Amino acid sequence: MSVLPEKIYISPEDYLVMERVSPVKHEYFDGEIFQMAGTSRNHARISANTSASLVNQFKGRNCQSFQSDLRVKVPKTGLYTYPDVVAGCGELLMDDAKYLDVLLNPTLIIEVLSPSTEAYDKGTKFENYRTIESLLEYVLVWQDKKRVARYTRRDDDSWVLTDFIGEDAVIELTSVVATLTMDDIYDKVEFK
Fold it and tell me: What is the mean pLDDT of residues 143-163?
């Protein structure tokens, strides 16, 4: 009979030390580190298009948008992750004043769905994200068809889903007072 190796607990502080010098990205949760999957061309294009549209709309306003290089910490659950696009308005609270690489109070998170992460993004990850008090909108973007799902937080902490499908759909992002069109999101994206 073989014995499984005992799981080694890694502290959040040790994770951050390792992650800041790692050539690849990792999520952290409950003492464990998980290497993040690579992205496809469509995934990268959709993330870039979406972030660029938000950056342009935020000019002259006190809002900021970041692509997947800014880590987000979910304070109540301890998850550290890299959303595909994250945005916030007003003062952005960072977990570490020295590095400024861990955001605590996103207003909007956008994830581009991949076959390997779709269930996680819709399930466990969203469960974690919902505990972030500042988060008002969570947006999922398909990369194999023109479809977007937007979840908005209501005053009673319930979430409302709105689906956007088709060429002419316009996604109103009320949390950051911005809009995304399907043309914005899917510019230069090639469907098989």
Answer: 96
